[in-house]
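Anyone able to model this chain together with alpha-D-galactopyranose?
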Amino acid sequence: MDRADPLARLRDRLGDGGGDVAGARAFFAPGRANLLGAHLDYNGGRVMPVALSRGTYLAVAPRDDDSLVLESEGFPGERVETSWSELRPGRTTGWSAYLEGALWAASRRWGRPPGWEVRVVADLPLAKGVSSSASIACAAVLAVASWQRVDEPRETLAAVAHQGETEYVGVPCGILDQTAIFLGREDHVLSYDCLEGTHDYLPLDHHRAAVVVLDSGTSRELAAGAFEERVADCRRALEALRGPLPALRALRDLTEDQLLEHGSLLDERLRRRAAHVVGEVRRTRLGAEALAHGDLASFGRQITASHASLRDLYEVSTPELDALVEAAVAAPGCFGARLTGAGFGGCVVALVDPAARADFDAAVTRGYRAATGHDPAPTWFAPAGGARELPFRA
Ligand code: GLA
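re: yes, here you go
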């Protein structure tokens, strides 16, 4: 068996949970990195992510009963045995919550497949801001939809995965991760309007720019509560501003002038949150224009400016993430860098000229080591395609 091949690892172990391997099917869902539009999804703004070429591989083998036997390579010895009929929100907070939430939401919508043995292999860093959890959920939603022969738009599959995360797991996340994972396209940045539900694609030629994920070496332990606080801050700011501005559909509609005029309705913290949203909306507009003209230098400047806003106004950065962005931006070939995901630890994403790869890697590693002692382990990606079924047999 080729240990480097995640599908081979899936094939190797499937079957010891009572599934019929002859009827097995395999699915892949990528991770994602959001380049611009940080914390805009639940504020109705535009997000600009790419899907990554690494992600979650999931195989299912049918059983002759209603049981679900779930196992992940990342959590050895933690096999979960349940059944379709036992799935309900709040049942678990363990590793399988995202997987169960997706199976629950998808089977409520499209009906239940037979019992399944499910095995998961991820080749993505876990809990680091590149959406390992949404990618497992999206792979599972795709598995149910395909098994049930459902032909629905990819936006609907994303919405079902999102429902699993918000209702079953209980995280009030926006739609960014699931949308990027289902709608990602090779050599393109997705530009998705989270209020209108419309999207288009902007070119990002992998010969000119690569997406590099840098690990700060810190994980996001406090992220859940702090993320919920940011969502609540934005909701409160919107409610207060709707007094004088009843036509605001979401914070993304707020203009800079309106914030200046009515900002006194908000306390200092809420004003900073709203200012981040207003600035980030402007950056996504400028960034989209820059990409449409192939102006990577200008696109990269928006990315780095986004980090400054996340640090100073939205307050979701950490000293390590700041040091890593600084080291990346100072390294040769870097167009721009910022924290990715919700923040509070995890990874930084940088947009880098591939011709400078060796120099960039050396410089960012040297710079970040000098600041923190950690190795950022640069991982290079080209924007990749979205979730898909894979042949289970080689
Ligand atoms: C997390 C959430 C997303 C989004 C980002 C911040 O990844 O799951 O919905 O809000 O944070 O942009």
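Residues 268-292 form the longest helix (25 residues).
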